[in-house]
Specification:
The complex is a heterotrimer of chains A (327), B (556) and C (253).
Chain A: H1 16-47, H2 64-93, E1 100-107, E2 110-114, E3 120-122, E4 124-128, E5 133-139, E6 144-148, E7 153-157, E8 163-167, E9 173-179, E10 192-197, H3 199-208, H4 216-226, H5 229-232, E11 251-253, E12 259-261, H6 264-272, H7 295-307, H8 322-326
Parallel strand pairs in A: 1-5, 4-10
Antiparallel strand pairs in A: 1-2, 2-3, 5-8, 6-7, 6-9, 9-10, 11-12
Helix pairs in contact in A: 1-2, 4-7, 6-7
Chain B: H1 24-28, H2 33-61, H3 72-108, H4 116-138, H5 152-156, H6 161-188, H7 201-233, H8 246-280, H9 287-300, H10 316-344, H11 353-376, H12 378-384, H13 388-418, H14 424-451, H15 465-495
Chain C: H1 14-49, H2 51-59, H3 63-88, H4 94-122, H5 135-138, H6 146-163, H7 168-212, H8 222-247
The chains are: A alpha+beta (327), B mainly alpha (556), C mainly alpha (253).
């Protein structure tokens, strides 16, 4: 789905129109200088062509005012280009708050993407239209780069680092993505497609897609037992830790008297930094799982805990705030 | 060329540097800078061929989207080896080691460089480095990209990385010693009266280049050494699994490799700064600005390296700084272009081949340099980084710029170096073929890049095919443009008419001695009392002062 | 072949020749600064990132030997400076003596370096498959001082606690990896320096031979001067190495 005039890709993200406008500006400035200098050279080439063998040119050694002019004017134009580009870049590097987070892992020579609900994709990425999307990039081996020309965005994927990028798809469609940092033999075929869908289509896709992976809720349940979470987080509230029934989306009373909502971020933090927020009436006994769980595992655990939303909340031994019961 | 003007009955002098001594030992053990320059000419031409063959194969392979000429592994080796051969063994030495070596002593009125034996050593070091790299090419090849990013090059690649890295390391010392030689020579061996501001701009350009060579090359040497050691002994400088950082490699690598591009372009600008005033028969416009801009490019060029790393996840602050500095480094180059153009104004312009090359240089360098502004722009670079836009940009500068300058310089000084003239019409035709072929090859690549085709791809989506085919078509024309000079230059050495001492005529000291020069360069050490490019006060040039365009009174 | 002291063909005057030689050596030394500089930068960055492991590694270096070497090199710079003085004042008998002293001190340095390297080799501190930071404390040898060993044990234990909270085995792996980085840089930097010392020794032998033939005097002593420049540079590099490798984060024993 290229544009009819194949000089630039489709504009399918919030950044694309800005990048293209900037491109047009710089092209215009450069064209002006390139054309003027070329015309001058061609003009002089013909106008001052040597007529007689022993003639010389007029000795003009220089002109400081001219030099100053053609230092200052390009400098000003350069600063405009710099400034405009900087504004776009700063926006690009500064993640907005409300993003849909996708994890992408690059490895020789494929991409693995993980949606927030645990669904995994290989060499494909389904995204909802109009949502701010943040991609967290990791590499399993060498440096790769995730590049979507239609979005005008790319970011290196460096082993040992996490890099993040964001954009907002603005046009439904199917867009090529490429690996754009040479990574070995099959660098050129390490690409795929980004599918931007209407939000309702995206939701439907999320619900129905299996992608060949195990149900994240089942995977999460299995992990819950394996990692011995169930030892303390007993469903009927009799364990050393609060029951997780009905927790997801509810309000939780903390030991310091504050109340927080048990959303994805809260659950993630509770697993990785349990000492950050202690539920009222409980001791800070939970060990940290930082470094002991992969991102994917945290996500499936969250999916499992979310699935416990509809389970009966015990009257004693739950983290859910008492006022919740009054609703 | 002004044949009808030159001294009548000129012939090649009886004894000169080419025939002063005979035998292979007199060449392989020479310390005459002029002979060493020719030794370099032979070897850089060889590597140009090597790199050129790889380029030809690349462009043929890219005629079809799925690529049918070679396997993906071999394609990756082709572009890597093309880059390594061209950058380290052709572009970086070319003008300095061939034209610089030959001309700098002549231009300043000296008998030779300060350290002639070190000069010869430089050539042998270059050869040894070249042997290691050729060994790498021949035993499994190299497929890491000329940039050797880790951990691909230090751990994952299965190609002959180690010998290549050793070869480039060794070759670096050739560069360092050449730069050292030039700096000392220019400081201490100028003839009486040859003050700094009477130096030809070619010498200024090489002085600036030499500063970059001596300061930058040691850093890439140690970087490649560390990467090689990491590969050989499983050390962890750049390997995240062992606590190292791949981005550290990039910083260290680009700290040299960005200034390296100025090593490649500054000498070429020096050549253009000689050709234009000579073939327009007037002083260069803005001499001190051109000289100063060479130094400015050398200095600022050291401060911009991380513009190759805008999307590595570096801090936003660092990116802003490097983008800003990268815009600053563009300004001195712009100053040069304006000054060269202004020099043509009210000149007496000959249409000889060197002028065609010089003007071709300006046109192509203009496009290449201006497209650098796109890449320095942070917002744009996110989109075009590591695409064919970058490939087009650097080929415009390195091939359209540096190689055009090199060829233009060869044509300009060929009569001095060989004492022979090449066929004028054929050479003009070749220059024009080159210009056209070059644009056809590389301009489509700007569009390809903006459309999103990444670089280093052995296959590509079908919608990119038309532009790739155009590019390959242009490459075939380009190849013809390169082959022609090789043929007629060789022809001229045997069959070309003899050149006079000063066929253009030009005002530099090198033109005051015979063509070809005697081994000791000058019979008597010259004493300089004229300004550079001064066509009015040089009766020895045989030109009529105050000719048709010159005023009959005063100055300007 | 030209004999030293004669005017080489490309120069007009002896003064031009001397100026060229001196400037040439200065520029060469600038390139050496950049060459070592890359290593120093890598070292600094890694020390900042892994100061615990680098602290442990640094304390495993023998401070006495390192300090001795520093004194030896500074003394050799002194004798080198004396050689230049002797040459400049035409003291033709004294000159070879000072050069010889410089050479001997250089060899002493290299000899001590050999001993240090051997110690590292014996203690499994050479980067590679058999690198093991804990080798010495686990396999004490007859010559090992008990207090030193205890201090080292304490040091490593402390480092393990801060290296990685994951668990003792992971911490040891991380500590070994980071300490290996330290020792890679240690061997790289001191090895490169030692290589330069060997070249310097070669240069000293050359000028020593020429000085025995009485070639140098107030009228002509350029080779002594430029060898002196080189030697002083190699000395200065060592002083930086000593400070960076041995002294930072040094604990009292």
């Amino acid at each position: 789905m290229q544009s009819q005039l194949p000089l630039y890709p489709e504009q399918a993200s919030n950044f694309a129109p800005h990048v293209d406008s900037l491109m047009l500006f710089i092209i215009t400035v450069c064209l002006f200088f390139a054309v003027s200098v070329t015309i001058a050279i061609v003009w002089f080439f013909f106008r001052y062509h040597r007529k007689k063998e022993n003639e010389v040119g007029v000795p003009l050694h220089g002109d400081s005012r001219l030099e100053t002019l053609w230092i200052i004017v390009p400098l000003i134009l350069a600063m405009v280009m710099f400034g405009w580009g900087a504004v776009i870049y700063v926006d690009y590097r500064h993640m907005p708050q409300d993003t849909l987070d996708i994890y992408m892992i690059g490895k020789q020579w494929m991409w693995k993407a993980q949606q927030p609900n645990g669904i995994r994709e290989i060499n494909e990425l389904h995204l909802p239209l109009g949502r701010n999307v943040r991609i967290i990039l990791a590499s399993e081996d060498v440096i790769h780069d995730f590049y979507v020309p239609a979005f005008r965005v790319k970011m290196d994927v460096v082993p040992g680092h996490y890099n993040t990028m964001w954009f907002r798809p603005t046009k439904p469609g199917r867009y090529h993505f490429f690996c754009s940092q040479y990574c070995g033999t099959n660098h050129a075929v390490m690409g795929g497609w980004v599918y931007v869908m209407e939000p309702s289509d995206y939701a439907a896709w999320l619900a129905g897609a299996s992608g060949g992976e195990a149900n994240p809720v089942a995977a999460g349940e299995k992990l819950f037992t394996e990692k011995a979470c169930s030892t303390c987080h007993v469903p009927n509230g009799s364990g050393r830790a609060p029951s997780l029934n009905g927790l997801y989306g509810a309000r939780v009373l903390l030991a310091d008297g504050s109340v927080v909502e048990a959303d994805d971020a809260y659950i993630r933090e509770s697993i990785l930094q349990p000492a950050a927020k202690i539920v009222a009436g409980y001791q800070p006994l939970m060990p940290t799982f930082q470094g002991l769980l992969t991102e994917e595992q945290v996500i499936v655990l969250t999916a499992y805990i979310k699935s416990l939303q509809s389970q009966p909340v015990p009257t004693k031994g739950s983290g859910v705030a008492p006022s919740e019961g009054k609703k | 060329m002004s044949e009808e003007f030159t001294l009548p009955n000129h012939k090649t002098p009886h004894e000169h540097y080419l025939n002063a001594t005979y035998g292979i030992r007199s060449w392989l053990l020479t310390t005459d800078h002029k002979r060493i320059a020719l030794l370099y000419l032979a070897s850089v031409t060889f590597f140009f061929f090597v790199g050129g063959i790889f380029a030809t194969m690349i462009r043929i392979h890219l005629l079809t989207p799925s690529g049918t000429l070679v396997t993906p592994e071999n394609y990756n080796k082709l572009f890597t080896m093309h880059g390594v051969a061209m950058i380290f063994f052709f572009l970086i030495p070319s003008i300095p080691a061939v034209l610089g070596n030959f001309l700098i002593p002549l231009m300043i009125g000296a008998k030779d460089l300060a350290f002639p034996k070190v000069n010869l050593l430089s050539w042998y070091i270059y050869l040894i480095g070249g042997c290691f790299v050729l060994y790498s090419f021949g035993t499994g090849g190299l497929d890491t990209g000329w940039t050797f990013y880790t951990p691909l090059s230090s751990i994952y690649s299965n190609s002959a990385v180690t010998p290549a890295v050793i070869g480039i390391f060794i070759n670096g010392f050739s560069s360092i010693l050449t730069g050292l030689n030039f700096i000392v020579t220019i400081h201490t061996m100028r003839a009486p009266g040859m003050t700094w501001f009477r130096l030809p701009l070619f010498v200024w350009a090489h002085y600036a280049t030499s500063i970059v060579m001596i300061l930058g090359t040691p850093v890439v040497a140690i970087t490649l050494l560390l990467a090689g050691l990491e590969r050989m002994f499983h050390l962890g400088f750049f390997n995240p699994a062992l606590g190292g950082d791949p981005i550290l490699f990039q910083h260290l690598f680009w700290f040299y490799s960005h200034p390296a591009v100025y090593i490649m372009i500054l000498p070429s600008m020096g050549v253009v700064s000689e050709i234009i005033p000579t073939l327009a028969r007037k002083p260069i416009f803005g001499y001190s600005f051109i000289a100063g801009s060479s130094i400015a490019i050398a200095v600022i060029g050291f401060l911009v390296w991380a513009h190759h790393m805008f999307v590595t996840g570096q801090s936003t602050y660092a990116a802003l700084t490097f983008s800003f500095l990268s815009y600053l480094v563009a300004i001195p180059s712009a100053v040069k272009v304006f000054n060269w153009t202004a020099t043509l104004y009210k000149g007496s312009i000959s249409w000889d081949t060197p002028m065609i090359y010089a003007l071709g240089f300006i046109g192509l360098f203009l496009i290449g340099g201006l497209t650098g502004l796109f890449l320095a722009c942070l917002g744009l670079d996110i989109h075009v980084h590591d695409t064919y836009f970058v490939v087009a940009h650097f080929h415009y500068i390195m091939v359209g710029g540096a190689v055009m300058g090199y060829l233009g310089g060869l044509h300009f000084w060929w009569p001095k170096i060989t004492g022979k003239l090449y066929p004028e019409s054929l050479s003009r035709l070749a220059a024009i073929i080159l210009f056209i072929g070059f644009n056809l090859t590389f301009f489509p690549q700007f569009i390809l890049g903006y459309l999103g085709m990444p670089r280093r791809y052995h296959s590509y989506p079908p919608e990119f095919q038309v532009l790739n085919v155009l590019s390959t078509a242009g490459a075939s024309i380009l190849a013809l443009g390169y082959l022609l000079p090789m043929v007629y230059f060789v022809w001229s050495m045997r069959y070309g008419p003899a050149a006079s001492t000063n066929p253009w005529p030009a005002t530099g000291l090198e033109w005051k001695t015979a063509s070809p020069p005697p081994t000791e360069n000058f019979e008597v050490t010259p004493v300089v009392d004229w300004e550079p490019y001064d066509y009015r006060n040089r009766p020895d040039l045989g030109l009529v002062a105050g000719g048709r365009l010159a005023p009959t009174h005063g100055d300007d | 072949m030209h004999r030293t002291g004669e005017l080489y063909g490309q120069f007009e005057t002896l003064e031009q020749q001397k100026d060229s030689a001196t400037l040439g050596m200065w520029i060469f030394l600038v390139t050496e600064v950049l060459f070592f500089g890359g290593l120093f930068l890598t070292y600094s960055i890694n020390r900042h990132l892994y100061f615990t492991a680098f602290g442990v590694g640094g304390n495993m270096l023998d401070l006495r030997l390192g300090a001795t070497n520093t004194v030896v090199l500074i003394a050799s710079s002194f004798t080198m400076a004396m050689s230049v003085w002797a040459a400049q004042t035409s003291r033709k008998k004294l000159l070879p003596i000072f050069l010889l002293l410089t050479l001997i001190l250089g060899f002493v340095f290299l000899g001590i370096k050999y001993v240090e390297y051997k110690q590292k080799f014996d203690h499994h501190l050479v980067p590679g498959h058999s690198f093991d930071l804990t080798y010495r404390i686990n396999h004490p040898g007859p010559g090992d001082d008990a207090k030193e060993l205890a201090a080292e044990r304490e040091e490593i234990a402390g480092a393990l606690r801060t290296e990685a909270p994951g668990g003792p085995q992971e911490a040891l792996t991380a500590l070994n990896a980071h300490a290996q980085l330290y020792f890679s840089l240690y061997f790289g930097m001191t090895g490169l320096h030692a290589l330069h010392m060997v070249v310097g020794a070669g240069l000293l032998v050359w000028v020593l031979r020429e000085s025995l033939k009485g070639r140098f005097s107030a009228a002509y002593n350029t080779p002594i001067e430029i060898v002196g420049l080189y030697w002083h540079f190699v000395d200065i590099v060592w002083i930086y190495l000593f400070a960076l490798l041995y002294l930072i984060n040094r604990h009292a024993v």
